[in-house]
Structure formats: structure tokens, C-alpha cells
Amino acid sequence: MAVKIRLARHGKKGYAFYHIVAADSRAPRDGKFIEKLGTYNPNTNPATIDLDFEKALGWLQKGAQPTDTCRAILSYKGVMYKHLLGGVAKGAFSESDAEAKFNKWLSEKQTKIENKTNKLASDAKSAEKSRLAAETKIKEERAAALAEKAAAEAAAREAAELPLPNRLKQQLPQRELLPRHSYNRYVVVGCARE
């Protein structure tokens, strides 16, 4: 029986969530499996991987073949690095040297992941800050436009409250005298005949 380490899809449409499983290669993708090794959620940034390190390493040492995606996940978590301890079996280096190299690699990897999450958080904060600044600018522009409109309305109300002669002076254009054809009278534009 050929055993594969692969992903079994779960979750809803458009929002996939995967279980990392050791399964017979002839079994359906989401069907029967031998053992669940962990979970993989690509919807978060960075992707969330919860993996039982020892179980995955045990299946690799038994000869299970990971799929390409699972190989990348196992490599990301360091299982493939740990799996390549064939050098210890061959006597190329001691087990303590291998552990020291692995721990050094693991600490560097954790630092990289923390830096990425910190960068994402700071980018989100700066984007929120710039969005708030843009909103306050728009709010100030709207407030200035409203104040201008209110001032115009107040001036119109004040003009409406003026006494009648002053109001007429403001509303009427300059007086012009125009001759009429057959009459010798003059008509004032904007007023009744005099």
C-alpha cells in the first residue's frame, strides 16, 4: 500500500480549509485516511499551519510520499529538514550537531515569521491612519462648505429683514430713463411709470 501525505479539503465554497493526512494513494481526496497529521488554513496571512511534528516525521521515515503542496508545508515547518538526518545515520556528523543546526534554522524561521506578522500589522495600522486622515480632510471640506452655505442663507435672511426702501434699492438695478415712441414720457426700468 502506497501511503501519501496530502491535503483533504474542508470548509465552505470559496473558503477552503485543509487537513493534512496520511492516506492510501488509492483513496479519494476527502475520503478515508490513515491518520490526521495537522491542519492548514491558507485564508489567513500568513497561512496558519498546525502540524504534529513527530507524527509527520514518523510517516516520512516509514516511506510516505508527500504531495508537492504537503512537501512545501513540511519543509516550511522543518520536518523535511529534520527528515534529512541521513547524515547522522551515515556518520557524516553527530546527532548533537544535527540538533544544533536544526534549532538554529528553527529560530531563524520563527524570527522571519514574526517579522512578517509585525510588518503586516504595522502596514495595517498605517493604512488605517491614512484612511482616517483622508476622512478628516473630507469632513473638514464638508464642514467648510456647510458653513459657507449657512453664511449665504444668513445674508439672505438679513436682506429679507431690511426696511422696504432699502430692500428696493438693493434689488432694483440702476435707474435708466428710456424714451417712448410717440409719448414724451420716460419710463423708469424696474419701477412703475412715473
Would you kindly provide a written description of the structure presented here, covering whatever features stand out?
The protein has 194 residues and is of the alpha+beta class. The strands form 2 sheets. Strands 4-3-2-1-5 form a 5-stranded mixed beta sheet. Strands 6-7 form a two-stranded antiparallel ribbon. Strand 6 (177-179) and strand 7 (186-188) form a beta hairpin. Helix content is 54%, strand content 20%. It is elongated. 11% of the residues are buried. The mean pLDDT is 81. It has helices spanning 53-62, 68-77, 79-83, 86-90, 95-160, 164-171; strands at 3-12, 15-24, 35-41, 48-51, 65-66, 177-179, 186-188. The chain starts with a strand and ends in a 6-residue tail after the last strand. It has 6 helices and 7 strands.
Provide a compact summary of the structure.
This protein has 194 residues and is α+β, with helices and mostly antiparallel strands.
Strand order, largest beta sheet? 4-3-2-1-5
Distance between the termini: 117 Å
Largest sheet: 5 strands, mixed
Shape verdict: elongated
Secondary structure: helix percent: 40-55%
Model regions low in confidence, pLDDT < 50 over at least 5 residues? none
Total beta-strand segments:
7
Percent of residues in β-strands: 15-25%
What is the ordering of alpha helices and beta strands?
EEEEHEHHHHHEE
The mean pLDDT is 81
Helix and strand composition category? alpha+beta
Task: Provide a count of the helices.
Answer: 6
The Rg value, from CA coordinates, equals 41 Å
